[in-house]
Design goal:
By secondary structure, the chain is α/β, with parallel strands linked by helices. The protein has helices at 30-38, 50-60, 73-83, 98-105, 150-154, 196-199, 213-221, 230-238, 242-266, 290-299, 325-343; strands at 17-19, 67-70, 89-93, 111-114, 134-138, 162-166, 189-194, 207-211, 273-274, 282-286, 302-306, 317-321. The chain is globular, with a radius of gyration of 20 Å.
């Protein structure tokens, strides 16, 4: 469960064409790099997150007391596992594995609700145990790229339950439809966001939590001092400006078009089943012998994400990051070659 896509492109493998990591290609943009670089003159001072916190709050129409800045969205899972006195935590799979890992590391016994491929990995709210007091689900979900209806997720809320919705990829969805980020009417709701994917800031580590003030306070108590660096705070503030939000919206529209192109090209291969409809910056595919085909793709110059490390999936699954049409066309040629060779 500790395997992540970046493991596919480390060291000598960094030269591979990367379809394993879901960070948008060609990022961060030059204007954002310039803002971050300018912040280096202030490194002698301790970080002050007030301006960034207020910018994130304004971006979602919330008071600053409902915002907690974190060193990437992944830190939030650790804080939740340590701060909340959960008795029966449930994680909805297949999804990003860090929430379950963080809960287990904190000594919790985790139950799984595994969604069914026959239902296209869509949530049935009744599948979650009624007495679960912590429920974690991604939207859109990594790795399935399923976008669950906001109303269906809101139905999971209960008195005494914390509902954690990981929206790390929501800014890649045009219009951020089905987001719960600005909602204050859902009891126990915790929404996690990341600036890593759209803005290419995986190395800077910046994300945030949106939750009720009491929950934010509880998480803040177990958070280390000055957890978010000054450059990351500058990035958070910069990415919440109207011009940045407009750029992200345009990027989401392009991503949707590029994803459709990838899905159309994959449909040309009879052996490949594409999980859909997809809404994220990646596609989940199933094909026989995927493990061997993944190895052959590396020899042909492409890195893709193995699927068998996600609970609920097996060795015949791969996750593909969406790239520009030219890269997709080159990849599909290589994939077709790998599939044909595997059949010989």
């Amino acid at each position: 469960m500790r395997h992540h896509g970046d493991a596919e492109v480390r060291g000598a493998d960094a030269a591979l064409t990367d379809l394993a990591v879901n960070v948008r290609a060609g990022t961060p943009p030059e204007w954002l790099k310039a803002r971050i670089a300018a912040s280096l003159d202030g490194l002698a001072a301790y970080p002050d997150g007030l301006a960034a916190r207020e910018a994130v709050a304004a971006r979602h129409g919330l008071p600053a007391g409902r915002v907690l800045l974190t060193a990437g969205a992944a830190e939030a899972f650790v804080l939740l596992a340590r701060a909340l006195p959960t008795r029966r935590p449930v994680v909805v799979h297949p999804q990003f594995t860090e929430p379950e890992s963080a809960l287990r590391d904190a000594g919790h016994t985790v139950e799984r609700v595994v969604l069914d491929e026959r239902d296209d990995f869509r949530l049935t709210p009744g599948a979650v145990p009624e007495d679960a007091d912590l429920v974690v689900i991604g939207n859109p979900t990594n790795p399935t790229s399923v976008l669950h209806p906001a109303d269906a997720l809101a139905e999971l809320a209960r008195p005494g339950r914390t509902l954690v919705v990981d929206e790390a990829f929501m800014d890649a969805v045009p219009g951020e439809r089905e987001s719960l980020a600005g909602r204050t009417d859902v009891p126990g709701l915790v929404v996690l966001r990341s600036l890593t994917k759209t803005w290419g800031l995986a190395g800077l580590r910046i994300g945030y939590v949106l939750a009720e003030p009491d929950t934010v306070t509880a998480l803040e108590r177990v958070q280390p001092l000055w957890p978010v660096s000054s450059p990351a705070l500058v990035a958070a503030e910069a990415c919440c400006t109207p011009s940045a939000l407009a750029e992200a919206a345009n990027a989401a529209d392009r991503m949707a078009a590029d994803r459709a192109h990838l899905a159309d090209r994959l449909a040309e291969l009879a052996e490949v089943r594409v999980c859909g409809p997809a809404a994220g910056s990646f596609l989940l595919i199933r094909l026989p012998g995927a493990a061997a085909i993944r190895t052959r793709l590396r020899e042909l110059g492409f890195a893709v994400r193995r699927g068998d490390t996600f609970p609920g999936l097996g060795p015949d699954w791969l996750r593909l990051a969406v790239r520009d049409p030219a890269t997709t066309d080159r990849f599909v040629i290589a994939l077709a070659k790998a599939v044909a060779e595997s059949a010989d």
